[in-house]
Design brief:
The chain folds into two domains: 273 residues, Rossmann fold (3-Layer(aba) Sandwich), CATH 3.40.50.10540; 89 residues, formyl-coa transferase, domain 3. It is 39% helix and 15% strand. It is built from 18 helices and 13 strands. The chain has a six-stranded parallel beta sheet, with helices on both faces. A hairpin with a 2-residue loop joins β3 and β4. It starts with 8 loop residues before the first strand and ends with a helix. One of its GO terms (molecular function) is CoA-transferase activity. It comes from Oceanobacillus sojae.
Amino acid sequence: MEQALKGMKVVDLSQVLAGPYCTMVLGDMGADVIKVEKYPLGDDTRTMGPYINEESYMYMMVNRNKRGMCVNLKTEAGLKVFYELIKDADVLVENYRPGVTKKLGIDYGTLKEINSDIIYCSISGYGQTGPYRDKGGFDIMAQGLSGLIDMTGDKEGKPAKVGIAIHDIAAAETAIQSILAAYIHRLKGGKGQYIDISLVDSGLAWTVWEAAAFFGKGEIATRNGTAHRVSAPYQGFQTKDGFILIGAGNQKLWENLCQHVLHKPEWIKEERFLTNSIRAENVEELESEIEKVLTTNTSDYWLNLLEKHGIPSGPILSYDQALGNEQIQARDMILDYEHPAGGSMKTLGFPAKFSETPGRLQKPAPLLGQHNNEILEELGYSLEDLEQLMNNNILKVNHINEKVNS
């Protein structure tokens, strides 16, 4: 089956997480993604462990389905190579600090003169405008500025970072949908364009419940542990031997929970718990009363009983347990593949299941400069040209790559 983005050419100038995750997904859907890494050490993620045969597992996780080059863009010859690459590209993704691409001669204004149809996507911490545009911004700073850290954690505890790099992934997802929208626009006869993506904006846009509470009632989101902001019970509860999750946020589920699981039918008419909104206002009392019952038996006991009566519930798993879970396994979310340096590897699967154009793991993450020769030959460079570029420190490959290709 043909993939959805077959024929799209993407030049990836990004590194670490937000940009590489974006271009990885485009590659998963069939785009020809050419990762151009900075000379001479490549993506900063290559320095992050754990390592498998000198290759970073972190790098390999978000750079599959890409071809890789390492080009010295601070040289005239390196820029010439890059400009040739851009001539027939559909998309460029970069995450330099604002202003750097202009200094390098690879900004949108410059590249638009070479390829007027280019869709140029910049991802930065704070965006290309505003008083913070020149600040360096990582995921944790974005979490702090957007209010996420302040609203995450136990009610009486310290503010906590969200467990994953949520603003990086939010920016990646925002970039993906924006690039595809711009690509569709161009296919319909429109022009190429510039896309400005901010880590802060992307994560902030996901705070819809919190914004509704603030704009509608002036409420400021606070740390609630696992509790929901407007639904109850909808959170984690302690049992005799651990913790479980219960989601009985509507009236029917609440009454079912009271009658058939907790055996507290009197709670249905209890003034403190009469409606969903009232229960949410009294969530601490509700949690205490429910846990008095749940701590009399084990997590498995309650989960089986909740399942029997159709009440959404589930365990709280550690990450290793999550990866080994039968549902995760059944959905093919763990993939096996071979890497030229790392050998037999595992990676995460494709979350979207297409009936006609499925995602595919066609290429492992490239070694540093692995596809220099292949890509430059496609651009019309001769073997003599390639040797000269190597000798003049324009192109770079690592020693593992040399062994693989020998």
